[in-house]
Request: fold
Amino acid sequence: MSVIVKPISRRMLLTSGAAFAASAAAPSAVAQAPDWPQKPVRVLVGFAAGGNIDNLARVTCARLSDVFGQQFVIENRVGAMGTLAASDVVRSAADGYTFFWAAAGTISIFPAMGKPSYSAKDLTPISLIGTNPQVLIVNGKLPIKTLQEFVAYVKPHPKKFAYAGGGGPGSVSNLLMALFLKRAGIEMNAVTYRGTAPALTDIIGGHVPAMFIPLPEALPHAATGAVRMIAVSDDRRSSHAKDVPTIAESGYPGFRGLSWNGMMAPAATPRAIIDRIANEFIRASKDPKFIAQLDKYGASPVSYTPEEFAKFLQEDMAMWAEAVKVAGVTLDKK
Reply:
């Protein structure tokens, strides 16, 4: 069954981004929180245990537990691209004992495809913690080594070639490719898969020539020559693939599309608590042990203030809204 997508309006997206910025900057009614926390803290994760998002949350919560002397307990609320967990957090008391482990799919992509049960003003950004770039890969036997060569290979043959979208129409993989094709002025047919693994199998087998994939999943296959990494979707090169250029430096300035993880709170959570957690993330981002733990799951550490995270969200939401519009994805059924 195909999924048809209708994006919400650009005005709504900009309003949502501004709401995040306003909630990050809003002063709290509670000036100090010297005795926090006095009991275990809940952190809701909208995806299943054992996945990359969950693993990163557990690494982070283990550190917070050690630092603050109370357990930061992961609770998995799986479903609807993480929005079930976000809704639970929004309905929780804003007392510093419930937080949301946020990700791009829930905060930036889902609102562009359909209207969640909450709005941006219901959540306060704390900090962006880690980012995971995607990499454009092609079958290793194709005569393509650069992004320019990829575009030149595809452009003369509109819709002759297909690309794999791992994870369905609304996945990061599919949306990134749709947006890049638009920017590059080329056309390919989308073939959607239920996940990255079957899509990657078809890339290696030569059935589909190209796709975007999380960088850590591409590395072992690139090492054997089964696939070739063409360009990463971050605005900086990866330490794991220093010879692979960014899309931006390959002729498409400003192009960036990342998976990311961060922490958010109910909107009225005391600013003193927000700042204590954000400041700890700044310290953690400089700790070699914590950096190594994130690196195990392909994430690069980031330490943003609440205001910097809010600005990042504005830009990220606008980018994914454009990608959703280009891809024509909606949650509306017809």
User: Anything to note?
Assistant: The longest helix spans residues 306-327. The domain at 133-250 is CATH 3.40.190.10 (D-Maltodextrin-Binding Protein; domain 2).
